[in-house]
Amino acid sequence: MIRVLLVHDTELMRSALTALLDREEDIEVVAESWESAPDRARAQRPHVCVVDVDCPGASRLPSRPVDRDCALLVLATTARPGSLRRAAEAKALGFVDKDAQPLQLPRAIRLMATGRRYVDGTLALDLLRAATAPLTPRELGVLSLAAKGASAPEIARSLRLSIGTVRNYMCAITRKTGARNRIDAIRISRDAGWV
Amino acid sequence: MIRVLLVHDTELMRSALTALLDREEDIEVVAESWESAPDRARAQRPHVCVVDVDCPGASRLPSRPVDRDCALLVLATTARPGSLRRAAEAKALGFVDKDAQPLQLPRAIRLMATGRRYVDGTLALDLLRAATAPLTPRELGVLSLAAKGASAPEIARSLRLSIGTVRNYMCAITRKTGARNRIDAIRISRDAGWV
What we know:
Two copies of one chain form a homodimer.
Chain A: E1 2-7, H1 11-21, E2 27-32, H2 37-44, E3 48-52, E4 71-76, H3 81-89, E5 94-97, H4 104-113, E6 118-119, H5 124-131, H6 137-147, H7 152-159, H8 163-176, H9 182-191
Parallel strand pairs in A: 1-2, 1-3, 3-4, 4-5, 5-6
């Protein structure tokens, strides 16, 4: 029996994905919120942990909701390389496209339970984009504060930079993302899952 | 038999929600994308149409994916009154909280199939907020262009306003949303589902 820990933000989606996987006789699912997943993982010792990388709670992903022995499989959509980057940094070994045939999910779970990897072909190009992130970690730090509404002086104080340096970072971010202005840069980066 | 048309952006979530509802003997589900839903609705004549109001495709909601005879039930999360507003404008009669017990969904479907309404108590306050939208339709128009990265002159041209008027709208929007600046106003409005 393959033990699966499924993590999703909302109760309804947890139940729905559980109903889907309950059809497979060799898979046993427990679904949890991001808050309760770590405790459950310690008790259940799952073989595979399945998380939806687009839900807001997935921003916690780099710190892993589960222990090291469990293979991490992420559910993802195309055109969001930033989300895939977080998943890769959390050492995900499986990447299932939410628009693939639903049978891919149990298939990928079985592969991963035997120590193999799985990447949907439709996500391969995004994984390449994720590997060559357009922004440096420092630029991402500036951008994520700006996206929360912080002004240049506030960002400067928060990151211990000069205001001019923050402005230079914002210009570099706008140029690298091909944006028309700061607001556009934030929109592009959010749509791609970078912030 | 209650015929349900389920509309969601991704194949996996359509299949998962179908698996959940397939457990109910009196409910028959067909799941479709936003593109194919109108055709399917004409062929299937569903009693209830279930849509996830937080998925990107739901921005088409005011034009209704289905015909007038079908009761619209939306799956929603708290703290996004803008999404509920779109649902209300599309004449939704059912509002199910995605964090409620999953059995609420078939219960709500049954109520609506007999012509009744259903609102989860947890969404009631958000519906009140949705009814008293903080922004006017004109302000929402300005804001949604700004959120896409348009500059004040571009917004002015697009909406046939003077640049000064656009700036006045942006100031009103920032004040009404309690934001620190324009970027913050866009973030707050997006999180609430207004744009």
